[in-house]
Amino acid sequence: MAYEYSIDDPARNQKRTLAFIIVVIIHVLFFWVLASGLGAKIVEVVIAPVQTKIIEDTPDEDKPPPPPPEMDQPPPYVPPPDFAIEAPAATGPTTAITNTTTERPTVAPVPVAKPVEHQVVRTPPSTQGKGARITQAEYPPSSRRAGEAGTVTLTICVSESGRPTDVKVRQSSGFEKLDEAAVKDVQRNWKLVPGKEDGKPVPMCSDFKVTFKLTD
User: Fold this and answer.
1) Hey, what CATH class is 122-212 in?
2) CA distances from 154 to 39, 41, 170 (A)
3) Do 174 and 144 form a contact (C-beta atoms < 8 A)?
4) Confidence class of residue 162 from pLDDT cuts 50, 70 and 90?
């Protein structure tokens, strides 16, 4: 026959009760910390931020560069010897090779003859011919008494009709009165054969001589 019994220890019961109360208080505090956000701050304080620093390797500027590698010197150049080779003269027939092409030979352009310029045939005015009328200039009396004589060269411009349009002294006779007498006579009395170009009368100038000569 089995028996069950228990011993009631008041000291032991107090310890259990105290432990239970402590556990309850710890849980209450834990939930309060979580609810108030204090736990997150505690975690931030406990876990400090980790800072990283990158250290760059700086080249050693004071260190001289390594010497260049030694290279093998090539052997000195020795020129090859010269050999004179004489070829025997060819005695047999030779073969000539000609180049052929399919291109047409270029023909030099035929030079174009320049047109022959028409040479205008000019005929100067004349004191002789059909329609010409030439008179002898009056000898100035004072020049006759003074024994003045000479030849004056006149440049006479003649119109298509043969009339003098302009008279100028080209070369004097040496005496002014003789020159004036010759100019006046030509302007008043002369009619010449007009100058022509290809047979057609055109205005033209020409030189004429008038001579004053004393006679006994």
Assistant:
1) alpha beta
2) 142, 138, 5
3) no
4) very high
